[in-house]
Amino acid sequence: MIYFFFKYLLTPFFWLLFWPNVKNFERLFFRGCAIIVSNHFSLSDPIRLALVIPRPVHFMAKQELFQSKLKRFLLGQLLAFPVYRKHADMLSLKQAMSVLEKGRIFGIFPEGRRSITGELDSFEKGAAFLALRCNAPIIPLYADPNWKKRKRIRMIVGEPIDANEIAQTYAGRGVDAVTEAIRDRMQLLKNEMELLP
CA-CA distances (angstroms) from residue 115 to 34, 49, 65, 119, 186? Predict the structure, then answer.
């Protein structure tokens, strides 16, 4: 598969060239399914995550990128599948659930779009819904949007979030509560990143 060819070919060069500093990197070594949530500021965000996270990561990508047969083939080989962003897309959610039910990793940018300012936007509820539906841990990962100025990629991996534990405390509004918890955790990671030298 093209994904594995590029991942294992490019990963060593990526680490040598960009010398990424990934705080709590050990939290990315785990078994079973998980949802990686990250901030979104660049079109290359999925590539960076795929080269940093040890295991293969499946991503959603906007439907417009799948217009041609060649693009559909290549993106499919890179473990991406389309999502219609203008309305609730049950097909893409089912595909994400299938990924998690097979014990794999699903990556998602809960802001839904790239942040121009580098600040965190409001979060969509897909990650929380999937975590509760598939009993999957959520692993927050914050990437420094200003890494080019520092000439080094920097990331912080947060502690896993147990969506079911949060939902039990907020009966009737579990998805909302988990979404808020994800954003709060990401904000804490952002604050932590800003304090790093």
Answer: 24, 17, 19, 7, 14
Find all residues with CB under 8 Å of 1, minimum gap 6, and list them: 77
Looking at 3.40.50.300, 3.30.70.20, 3.40.50.620, 3.40.1130.10, the CATH number of the domain 19-195 comes to 3.40.1130.10
Determine the 3-state secondary structure of 127 from DSSP: helix
Q: How far is CA 82 from the centre of its chain?
A: 15
pLDDT tens digits along 85-96: 655 568 888 999
Domain ranges of the chain: 19-195
Structure tokens at 130: 């999937």
